[in-house]
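User: quick one - fold this with flavin-adenine dinucleotide bound?
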Amino acid sequence: MSTYDVCILGAGLAGLTLARQLHMRRPDLAIALIEHRRFPMPEAAHKVGESTVEIAAHYLSQVLDLEDHLKEQHLPKFGLRLFFRGNQAITDDLARYDELGGSRVLPVPTYQVDRGRLENHLARCAQGAGATLIDGATLRDLSLNKGNHLLTIRDGSVEKQLSARHVVDASGRRGWLRQQCGLKRTIRHPNHAVWFRVQGSLEVDAWSKSAAWQDRCMQTPRRLSTNHFNGPGYWLWLIPLASDATSVGLVFDPRYVELDKVNQYPRLQEWIACEHPLIGAALEGRQPMDFHVLRDYAVGARQIWSEEGWSITGDAGLFSDPFYSPGTDFIAFANGYLTELICGDSDAAAYTEYQRHFFAFFSNTLSLYRGQYGAFGNRDLMVIKTCWDFIYYWAVLSKLFFSGCYTDQAFMNQVQASLFGAAALNSGMQRRFRQFANSGRVGGAGGFYDYHAVPLFHELKKNLLQGDPQDAAADLQRSLKILSGVSKEMIGLLTCAQDGLALPDLADLGARQAFQFR
Ligand SMILES: Cc1cc2nc3c(=O)[nH]c(=O)nc-3n(C[C@H](O)[C@H](O)[C@H](O)COP(=O)(O)OP(=O)(O)OC[C@H]3O[C@@H](n4cnc5c(N)ncnc54)[C@H](O)[C@@H]3O)c2cc1C
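Assistant: Sure. C-alpha cells for the protein plus flavin-adenine dinucleotide:
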C-alpha cells in the first residue's frame, strides 16, 4: 500500500491549486491526487469557472506564482460589464442598451481563464513538484481514521489501496464527504444554469455603428470583459477564451425563466434570439462545442474541516452563485486555511475558528444573490447594487485576502468589530436591494455608467496593491467608515431609483467620504 501525507480526491481547480500551495509551503510533503478523468483535459469545452475577479486573480498570479502562465496562455479581463434593455427587444444596435462597465481597465489585473489549459498546466506543475497524479481513477471507498485514512480506488481495472495522514475532498459537485458523511446543508437559493461554448469570438465591439459608443472604450475591446446581458430573473454571460472560443451561459431564477424553455440548445438559442436578438444573430450557424444544464447550483455543507484530519475544498463544500464569479475566490480562501491547518501547528481551536470565518464570508456573499434575481433587469437598482457590492468586496473581503492576514487568529480577533460592523451594513443594504425584486425591466436608454470614473474604486484598488499588511487592521477600520458613509448615499440613490429619477453621476459616489487611506 502506498502511503502519503496528503491524499487529494479530485484534480480539478481546487485540488490542483491546493497541491501547488502545499508544495510551495512544504516541498517535502508526499501528495497524491486522484482524478476520475484522464489528462490532458480538453481546452475550451471543459468546465465553467472561466472569469476571475480580484481575489482569484491575486491567488493564482501571486500566491501560486502563475502570473507568467496567466499572461501568456490566457486573456486579460476588462472587468464586469452589464447591459440592460427595456421592454422592447433591441435588434439593430448595442448602443441602445444601457451599459454599466469601465471605459478603461481599473488597477489589479484579472483574467479570463481557459479551464482545461489551466488544469493541464497545474497538473504538469504538480507532477514536476513531486506529487503523484493518479488519473483515470475513481475513489470507491474511504475509511476515515485519524492519522491513517484508507482510500480504495479503481485505477483502470485494478483496485488499489492508499493511506494518508490528511485526506482532502476536492471532488467538485459530487461532494464525496458531503454525501458520505451526511454533511449537506440546504441553501435556499434554487436557481439553475445552462451553458455552452462556441468556436471563435463573439465580436461584441462590432455590434454598434455609433461612433460615440465606440469612443467610450478606446483602449481595450469590450469583448475582453465578462459581458452580462441582464433581464428580470436572469443574466446571460459571454466570456472570451484564449483557445479561440467563447463561453456562453444563462443563469436564472426559475420563477422568471422556465427551465423547459432553455434546457436544450435549440430552445436556448430560440430564447436568446428572442430576448437579445444581437446575440442570437451572432450565434446563428454556429454549432455548440458542448451543452450543460445544472439545476440548483447553490450547495452548502455543515462542516468542511475536521481536526480528525479530513477536509473539503472547492465545490465539494460550498458554492453560492456565479454572478460576480466568486467560485475561485472561495477556493483561494479555503486552500489558504487548509495550507495552514495541514502545514502549520494548528490546534483544534484553529479548525473551529477558520471554519467560522469561512462560513461568515460565504453567508455574506450568498446574501448578494439570494432573493435578488427579480431585480437583475433593473438598470438603476443594478448600478447602485454593483457599486455597493464592489466596494464591500474590495474594502473587506479582498483586503483580508490581499493582506494575507485572514489566517492570523490574533489579527482576526483584533478586526472582529470592523468585520461585524461591515457585515451588518452589508446585510442592511442587501435587504433594501431585495425590495426591488419585482421591479421588472428598466433600461434601453443608451446610457453609460462608467466604473472607471469613480475615484473611490481607484482608491480601494490602489490600497489592495500598495497597502502594507501592517496597516491592514487600520485599513479595515477605515473601510468600515467608508461603507457606513457610502451606505447612507446609496439609500438616497435607492430613493431616486424608486421614484424613477435620474441617478447622479457615478463620479460623485463616495466623494463626500474621507476615503483616502493615507
Ligand atoms: C454556471 C456557473 C458558472 C461559474 N462561473 C464561474 C466563474 O466565472 N468564475 C469562477 O471563479 N467560478 C465560477 N463558477 C464556479 C466554479 O465553476 C467552481 O467553483 C470550480 O470549478 C470548482 O472547482 P473544483 O475543483 O471544486 O471542482 P471541479 O473543477 O469540478 O473538480 C472536481 C474534480 O474531481 C473529480 N472527481 C469527482 N469525483 C471523483 C471521484 N469519485 N474519484 C476521482 N475523481 C473525482 C472530477 O473529475 C473533477 O475533475 C461557476 C459555477 C457555475 C455553476
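One thing worth noting: Residues 196 and 291 are 5 Å apart (CA to CA).
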